[in-house]
Specification:
Blueprint: E1 2-5, E2 21-26, E3 32-38, E4 43-48, E5 53-57, E6 62-63, E7 75-80, E8 86-91, E9 96-101, E10 108-115, E11 122-127, E12 133-138, E13 142-147, E14 153-159, E15 164-169, E16 175-180, E17 184-188, E18 194-198, E19 204-207, E20 213-217, E21 221-226, E22 232-237, E23 243-248, E24 254-259, E25 263-268, E26 274-280, E27 285-290, E28 296-301, E29 305-310, H1 315-345, H2 348-356, H3 401-412, H4 416-420
Antiparallel strand pairs: 1-2, 2-29, 3-4, 4-5, 5-6, 7-8, 8-9, 9-10, 11-12, 12-13, 13-14, 15-16, 16-17, 17-18, 19-20, 20-21, 21-22, 23-24, 24-25, 25-26, 27-28, 28-29
Helix pairs in contact: 1-3
C-alpha cells in the first residue's frame, strides 16, 4: 500500500539514457493485468491475479481505502468509463462486476450488478463512449454488450468460433471491434450488422482517436490497418518476445505496447518509428494505460508492482513545440513593438503639437515659398530625439500623423535576428 518515487530526469531520453520511473505502487500480492486511469481525477485503478481491485491516489502515491473484493477469482481486466463515474472489472471465472466511483472521487463502491454469463475467463472489458454500455470478451469465444445500469445484455452473445482476446469501441461509439486468435471483426453497434472481417490474428486491438485506423498486436508484430477496408498500412516487429498489450495515447500522437520481454515501447502514430528508449521492467509487463492528458503512462507487471512513467515526446510533438516557441517569441516582439509605437506616436508633447499646429496645405500656392523640410530622424538615436518638437519654430508646418507612424515603424521594426532568437545571432 505504499509508493516509491523516482527522480525524473529533465533530459529527453536518448540511446544512452533510459527513462526513469516516476512512481512505484506496492500493495498487490500477485501478477497485475488490469490498469486504468479514472477520467477527471488523479486516481488509478488496478486489477490483479490476487483477486483484488485497488485504487491509487497519484498525488500521494497511496492506496485509497481497502482492496475491493468480489470476484472470488483472478481479476483479468479493468476499465473506467469516459465520464469518470464507473468501473467495470472482469474475472478469471467469467464474472463481471460494476463499481461506482464515490462522490468524493476517493472511494469505489460495488453496485449490485453481478454478471456471470461468460463460461470462460473474461479476457477484456471496455466502456462505450456514452458510459452507459460496455462490452466484454471471453475465452469462451463470445462477445457481449451490456447495459451498465441493469446488467442486461443488449447485443450478443456472439460466438466467434475462436478465443476472443480483446474488444474496442470506435471513438464515436458506432462500431465495435473484436480481436481473436483467427481474425478481427467489426460490427455496427446499432444494428448488430457485421461490417468488416479481417483475416489476421489480434491479441489486442484499438481504434485511433480519429477512428480511421486500427492498431493491433499479434504474437510479435504490430499492424496498423485501415478501419474501413482492413488494408494493412504498416506492419513491423515490436518486441523480441510475445506481445501482450497495447494502448493509444488520447491525443493520437503515439501508442505503447507491452511484452513478455519485460519492456514497454512507444511508437509514433505518424511515422511508426520508435520513440525514446524502452521502459525496462524486472518481469513481464501485462497491463498498460495512458492518462487523460497523454503525459503519463501506467504499467502493471508480473512482479506485483504498478509503475507510472513520464511519456516521451514524439518527433512531431518536438517539432510542434519548437514552432510554438517561435510563434510565442514573434508575438512577444510584435506586442512590444506595438507598445513602443503607441508610446512614441502618442507622446504628450508630440500629440499636443500635432493637434495645435496648423494643418499642412494639400495644394501649395505657386507663389508660396517652399517650406523648410524636417531633418531626417536618425533611427539609431530615435528616442534621444523625443523632445525635439518642443524646439521647433511655431511657423514650421506640423508633420502629418502618417509620417509619425512611418518614422516610428522604421525606428522600431525588429530585425530578423531579433525574431530568430539569440541562438541564431551567436
Amino acid at each position: 500500500m505504499t509508493a516509491t518515487t523516482g527522480k525524473a530526469s529533465s533530459k529527453v531520453p536518448t540511446r544512452k539514457e533510459a527513462p526513469s520511473v516516476e512512481m512505484t505502487l506496492k500493495g498487490h500480492e500477485n501478477n497485475i493485468c488490469g490498469v486504468a486511469f479514472i477520467a477527471g481525477t488523479r486516481l488509478l485503478v488496478t486489477g490483479s491475479y490476487d483477486g483484488s481491485i485497488r485504487v491509487w491516489d497519484l498525488d500521494t502515491g497511496k492506496q485509497v481505502g481497502e482492496p475491493l473484493l468480489g470476484h472470488d477469482a483472478q481479476v483479468k481486466r479493468v476499465a473506467a468509463s469516459p465520464d469518470g463515474r464507473w468501473i467495470v472489472s472482469g474475472g478469471g471465472n467469467g464474472s463481471i462486476l460494476v463499481w461506482e466511483v464515490g462522490t468524493n472521487m476517493k472511494e469505489l463502491k460495488r453496485v449490485p450488478i453481478s454478471i456471470n454469463d461468460h463460461e470462460g475467463p473474461v479476457s477484456d472489458v471496455v466502456f462505450a463512449p456514452d458510459s452507459e454500455t460496455f462490452a466484454s470478451a471471453s475465452l469462451d469465444q463470445t462477445v457481449s454488450v451490456w447495459k451498465r445500469e441493469t446488467g442486461k445484455i443488449l447485443f450478443g452473445p456472439l460466438d466467434l468460433g475462436s478465443l476472443v482476446q480483446s474488444v474496442a469501441y470506435s471513438p464515436d461509439g458506432t462500431q465495435l471491434a473484436a480481436g481473436t486468435n483467427k481474425h478481427i471483426i467489426i460490427w455496427n453497434t446499432e444494428t448488430g450488422k457485421e461490417l468488416l472481417k479481417i483475416e489476421q490474428r489480434a491479441w489486442r486491438i484499438a481504434f485511433t482517436p480519429d477512428g480511421s485506423r486500427l492498431v493491433s498486436g499479434n504474437h510479435y508484430d504490430i499492424r496498423i490497418s485501415d478501419a474501413t477496408t482492413g488494408d494493412i498500412i504498416k506492419q513491423f516487429d515490436a518486441h523480441i518476445k510475445p506481445f501482450y498489450s497495447l494502448a493509444i495515447a488520447p491525443n493520437g500522437t503515439k501508442f505503447a505496447t507491452t511484452s513478455h520481454d519485460k519492456t514497454t515501447r512507444f511508437f509514433d502514430l505518424i511515422t511508426f518509428e520508435p520513440i525514446g528508449e524502452p521502459l525496462e521492467h524486472p518481469d513481464e509487463v501485462n497491463g498498460v494505460a495512458f492518462s487523460e492528458d497523454s503525459q503519463l503512462i501506467a504499467t502493471g507487471c508480473k512482479d506485483k508492482l504498478v509503475r507510472t512513467w513520464t511519456v516521451p515526446l514524439s518527433e512531431s510533438e518536438k517539432e510542434s513545440q519548437q514552432v510554438s516557441k517561435f510563434s510565442f517569441r514573434v508575438m512577444l516582439h510584435i506586442d512590444l513593438f506595438i507598445q513602443k509605437i503607441l508610446k512614441v506616436c502618442f507622446h504628450p508633447r508630440r500629440f499636443v503639437r500635432y493637434l495645435t499646429c496648423p494643418l499642412q496645405k494639400t495644394i501649395p500656392s505657386p507663389s508660396a515659398q517652399p517650406q523648410p523640410r524636417r531633418a531626417p530622424i536618425q533611427t539609431s538615436r530615435f528616442f534621444d530625439d523625443v523632445s525635439s518638437y518642443d524646439t521647433v519654430d511655431s511657423k514650421h508646418v506640423s508633420p502629418s500623423f502618417d509620417s509619425l507612424i512611418l518614422d516610428a515603424t522604421a525606428a522600431l521594426l525588429p530585425s530578423r535576428a531579433m525574431l530568430k532568437g539569440p541562438e541564431s545571432r551567436t
